[in-house]
Write the structure tokens for this entry.
Amino acid sequence: MNKQEVYDYLTENNIEFEVTEHKAVYNMAELEDVQFPYPEFIAKNLFIRDDKKRNYYLITVKGDKRVDLMSFRQSYGTRPLTLASEDDLFAMLGLKAGSVTPLGLLNDNEHSVKLFIDSDFFTEPYIIGVHPNENTATVWLSPVDLVKILTEHGAVVEKVKI
């Protein structure tokens, strides 16, 4: 799905959302120049894999958090972890570097990527900001609605404390 197809999908599934269009951004530091309505709820996403390239994961946390892959591995019983390649990102989620988002799981028809989403998003006011499969906009929606559409699509989602 491209950006417009994501918007259409959300609308067809009766998901309330807002959109902030902005310049293309490729990392969290580049977001500092963009004015957002809910800056504290912007998601940072890490697309990772285990050392055998058998298991792929997307870790989604609030933008100000740091993810320690060693601690994550110990907490969730995975093999050693590393960032996945841009080729894997495109092959599995149809995304380019800088556009990593949980909404990319809507492109994962094999359901081969597991999402770990930080439980901190599931508190008042229940907002998460993610790319709509392109890094030129941020979609603001309820994390509950996000998990709902992803699990209905067949994605495996686990809410975790990071």
